[in-house]
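Inputs:
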Amino acid sequence: NAGVTQTPKFRILKIGQSMTLQCTQDMNHNYMYWYRQDPGMGLKLIYYSVGAGITDKGEVPNGYNVSRSTTEDFPLRLELAAPSQTSVYFCASSYPTTDTQYFGPGTRLTVL
Amino acid sequence: AQSVTQLDSHVSVSEGTPVLLRCNYSSSYSPSLFWYVQHPNKGLQLLLKYTSAATLVKGINGFEAEFKKSETSFHLTKPSAHMSDAAEYFCVVSDRESPGASYDKVIFGPGTSLSVIP
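Outputs:
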């Protein structure tokens, strides 16, 4: 049981490049989340999903897209990377939302 | 709408002395409340959670928190700090945004950095 896994661990992008952050969970959780954490700040919710085929915006969705074709996977897409997207990105899952959120190890992204 | 306030951005204690990290929340319905810990360069780990059962909640590593509805508070305490407790602590609230909402909204507080002095 690996829990929540995220790839890659680190990435450096140039302005305007695109990439997909991968997130997979093997706990059969319905709910999945993407957060970003900026230095000295708390976590801000980017997008969340309550099940396959259902996604919704969080607090800071601009510049990101998500999809949820399976229960296990919840990828986060950056289409045109900007320096403001330099952050650490955490994926989490839970079932249901009032239960514990299990976090992945994070992806540290730098946009230059 | 829900909100979370962590009253101290940084707390410093001596090893062996009590820890108090303060959290106040705003919520319209029946919130669930959580404390998470994040050690440097690590992911987040659940310390404890309140979900409408006992108001005094015990968590891992000797931490506990008391839910006080009248004060809208959920402060985190530990009787005796250990060096390994130095980390960032996040208070989290989860609740429905409206009576008809089918799922909860989750809000993280800004975090409190705990330093432990030898």
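Remarks. DSSP finds no helices and twelve strands in chain B. The radius of gyration of chain B is 14 Å.
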